[in-house]
């Protein structure tokens, strides 16, 4: 029988040799980086990598080692690229974020701010919480309209809901973010406490129809399930539902919306705390046409598409891990016109000024099919 200690000793010697050769190889890669910095040649050369893998596989013995060699050298070359991205950053080679401008603080007074919905909507509450009273605010009917207002320059900022802690992401906003060349410059959380609103002095057994936005209906689904005979009707926003009940003055109608919307439209609260999650918060983003970020910005949002190949997502995420960046969120959305292909949205902690962030973005930019930095915003969470 072979001796384990002997085997381990032999492995230690081999590993030392592998490490010596790895470091030797990395030194050569640094020379390659220098060449690429001077010539502007791209770090990633897929053809060269494929050719190398083929040659190495041919030299390997047996199927198992062929696959092993492929995986090993793919990793070695991925590390080589990451070292090269670091050197490019160190040498001040510009990347995709070169148009981003850092500011001490965003202009917040005398600006035009658009939100979707009507007054009394949660977007309105988010707008009020984020901006001072010194802004000119107005509302539009749809999320797309809000995006258009910013894209055309009529509004400086739009306030849009992107995620709810109970129901998850607002998919329309994710899709619109890829359609419009706009930037996330801020975020605001709003605690969402839905109530059932009706005509004053109406009782629950008079209700036949309940109006609200699909997200609010979903957040209150347990409550609605306890009233199976009610007809549920979707509206464009919660405050709009309250407005409708107020305008139609029909005692059989009720709306699910905020207490503030009820006050605005003179409706009574018929049931409180009807959302099944009492930690129900909606996160809103502040969108601008200008790629700016505040000095204190602590969160980066990116989106990218990937080739339909095994391991591509793993490779992309390795850029965050390798650069010590903490990923706080990942989402995917189907790409229209490309069946079973997805666009990924990742949030991670950092500021565009940090070398680690620059390195990771450089890697994503070079290795994803399409990559865009959606914004750098948000404050560091208080400890
Ligand atoms: O040969 C190059 O151009 C390199 O940058 C070196 C290297 C490697 O490590 O072998 C790394 C990245 C390229 O995608 C291809 C190969």
From TrEMBL:
<feature type="domain" description="Prephenate dehydratase">
    <location>
        <begin position="112"/>
        <end position="289"/>
    </location>
</feature>
<feature type="domain" description="Chorismate mutase">
    <location>
        <begin position="1"/>
        <end position="88"/>
    </location>
</feature>
<dbReference type="GO" id="GO:0046417">
    <property type="term" value="P:chorismate metabolic process"/>
</dbReference>
<dbReference type="InterPro" id="IPR036263">
    <property type="entry name" value="Chorismate_II_sf"/>
</dbReference>
<dbReference type="InterPro" id="IPR045865">
    <property type="entry name" value="ACT-like_dom_sf"/>
</dbReference>
<comment type="pathway">
    <text>Amino-acid biosynthesis; L-phenylalanine biosynthesis; phenylpyruvate from prephenate: step 1/1.</text>
</comment>
<dbReference type="GO" id="GO:0004106">
    <property type="term" value="F:chorismate mutase activity"/>
</dbReference>
<comment type="pathway">
    <text>Metabolic intermediate biosynthesis; prephenate biosynthesis; prephenate from chorismate: step 1/1.</text>
</comment>
<comment type="function">
    <text>Catalyzes the Claisen rearrangement of chorismate to prephenate and the decarboxylation/dehydration of prephenate to phenylpyruvate.</text>
</comment>
<dbReference type="InterPro" id="IPR002701">
    <property type="entry name" value="CM_II_prokaryot"/>
</dbReference>
<keyword id="KW-0963">Cytoplasm</keyword>
<dbReference type="InterPro" id="IPR018528">
    <property type="entry name" value="Preph_deHydtase_CS"/>
</dbReference>
<keyword id="KW-0413">Isomerase</keyword>
<keyword id="KW-0456">Lyase</keyword>
<keyword id="KW-0028">Amino-acid biosynthesis</keyword>
<keyword id="KW-0584">Phenylalanine biosynthesis</keyword>
<dbReference type="Pfam" id="PF00800">
    <property type="entry name" value="PDT"/>
</dbReference>
<dbReference type="GO" id="GO:0009094">
    <property type="term" value="P:L-phenylalanine biosynthetic process"/>
</dbReference>
<feature type="domain" description="ACT">
    <location>
        <begin position="301"/>
        <end position="378"/>
    </location>
</feature>
<dbReference type="InterPro" id="IPR036979">
    <property type="entry name" value="CM_dom_sf"/>
</dbReference>
<protein>
    <recommendedName>
        <fullName>Bifunctional chorismate mutase/prephenate dehydratase</fullName>
        <ecNumber>4.2.1.51</ecNumber>
    </recommendedName>
</protein>
<keyword id="KW-0057">Aromatic amino acid biosynthesis</keyword>
<dbReference type="InterPro" id="IPR008242">
    <property type="entry name" value="Chor_mutase/pphenate_deHydtase"/>
</dbReference>
<dbReference type="InterPro" id="IPR002912">
    <property type="entry name" value="ACT_dom"/>
</dbReference>
<dbReference type="InterPro" id="IPR001086">
    <property type="entry name" value="Preph_deHydtase"/>
</dbReference>
<dbReference type="Pfam" id="PF01817">
    <property type="entry name" value="CM_2"/>
</dbReference>
<dbReference type="GO" id="GO:0005737">
    <property type="term" value="C:cytoplasm"/>
</dbReference>
<dbReference type="GO" id="GO:0004664">
    <property type="term" value="F:prephenate dehydratase activity"/>
</dbReference>
<feature type="site" description="Essential for prephenate dehydratase activity">
    <location>
        <position position="282"/>
    </location>
</feature>
<keyword id="KW-0511">Multifunctional enzyme</keyword>
């Amino acid at each position: 029988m072979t001796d384990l200690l002997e085997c381990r000793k032999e492995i230690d010697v081999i590993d030392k040799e592998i490490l010596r050769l790895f470091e030797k190889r990395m030194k050569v890669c640094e020379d390659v980086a220098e060449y690429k910095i001077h010539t502007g040649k791209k770090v990633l050369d897929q053809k060269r990598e494929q050719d190398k893998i083929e040659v190495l596989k041919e030299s390997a013995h047996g199927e198992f080692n062929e696959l092993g060699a492929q995986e090993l050298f793919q990793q070695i070359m991925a590390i080589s690229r990451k070292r090269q991205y670091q050197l490019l950053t160190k040498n001040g080679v510009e990347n995709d974020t070169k148009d981003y401008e850092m500011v001490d603080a965003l202009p917040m007074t005398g600006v035009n701010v658009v939100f979707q919905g009507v007054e009394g909507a949660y977007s309105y509450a988010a707008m009020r919480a984020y901006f001072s009273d010194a802004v000119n605010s107005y509302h539009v009917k749809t999320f797309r309209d809000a995006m258009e207002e910013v894209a055309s320059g009529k509004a400086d900022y739009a306030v849009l809901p992107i995620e709810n802690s109970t129901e998850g992401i607002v998919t329309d906003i994710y899709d619109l973010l890829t359609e419009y060349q706009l930037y996330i410059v801020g975020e605001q959380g709003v605690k969402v406490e839905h109530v059932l609103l009706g005509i004053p002095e109406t009782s629950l057994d008079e209700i036949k129809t309940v109006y609200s936005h699909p997200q609010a209906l979903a957040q209150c689904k347990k409550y609605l399930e306890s009233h199976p005979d009610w007809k549920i009707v979707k509206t464009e926003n919660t405050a709009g539902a309250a407005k409708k009940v107020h305008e139609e003055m029909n005692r059989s109608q009720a709306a699910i919306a905020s207490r503030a919307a009820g006050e605005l439209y003179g409706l009574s609260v018929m049931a409180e705390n009807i959302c099944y999650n009492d930690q129900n918060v909606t996160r809103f983003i502040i969108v601008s046409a200008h790629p700016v970020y505040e000095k204190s910005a602590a969160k980066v949002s990116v989106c990218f598409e990937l080739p339909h190949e095994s391991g591509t997502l793993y490779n992309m995420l390795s850029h965050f891990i390798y650069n010590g960046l903490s990923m706080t969120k990942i989402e995917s959305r189907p790409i229209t016109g490309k069946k079973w292909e997805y666009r990924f949205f990742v949030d991670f902690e950092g500021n565009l000024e940090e070398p680690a962030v620059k390195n990771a973005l450089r890697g994503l930019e070079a290795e994803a099919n399409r990559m865009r930095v959606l914004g750098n915003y948000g404050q560091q969470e208080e400890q």
